[in-house]
Amino acid sequence: FNHSMRQLHSENIIDLCELTKNKPALVINTASHCGFTKQFESLEAVHKKYSSRGLVVIGFASDDFNQENKDEAKAAEICYANYGVTFTMIAPSHVKGEKPNPVFNEIIKQSKAPKWNFNKYIIDEKGIVSDHFGSFTKPSSKKFQNAIEKIL
Q1: What are phi and psi of 132, to 5 degrees?
Q2: Mind listing the pLDDT tens digit for each residue in 91-141?
Q3: In this structure, what DSSP letter does residue 47 have?
Q4: Helices within the chain (DSSP H only)
Q5: Fewer CB within 10 A of the end CB, N or C, for the chain?
Q6: DSSP 3-state percent helix, strand, coil across the chain (nearest 5)
């Protein structure tokens, strides 16, 4: 997380190192026009449930699977207005391929590249990927919630 990246539909630069300092994180690759986009709602619930215990939730918008809105303002509207997302969302970047963003580059080294949108990576406070869940795992599932509890 020793990088700074631009917030979705904003000029704000997020210092990811400062944001996650000594805290576990949940990192998700997202897209605004995907069959899994409705997971934003349950990811927001995870954020609300665990943020007081230190969990940092970060969504990385990406068009690597051709499912992200080309208009960043519309993508932001889907996240913020349609699904009420309050966790940190990062502007579109690559999460796989030859040049993934630096966070996903490290995640891929430790785990595996996402095969589709809404892969969920649970990362401990030292920056080690402790668990990975694919698109079909719902954030409300017991298995997923148990994995979060394990790192808190």
Answers
A1: -135, 135
A2: 999 999 999 999 999 999 999 999 999 999 999 999 999 999 999 999 999
A3: H
A4: 16-20, 39-50, 72-77, 83, 102-110, 142-151
A5: C
A6: 35, 20, 45
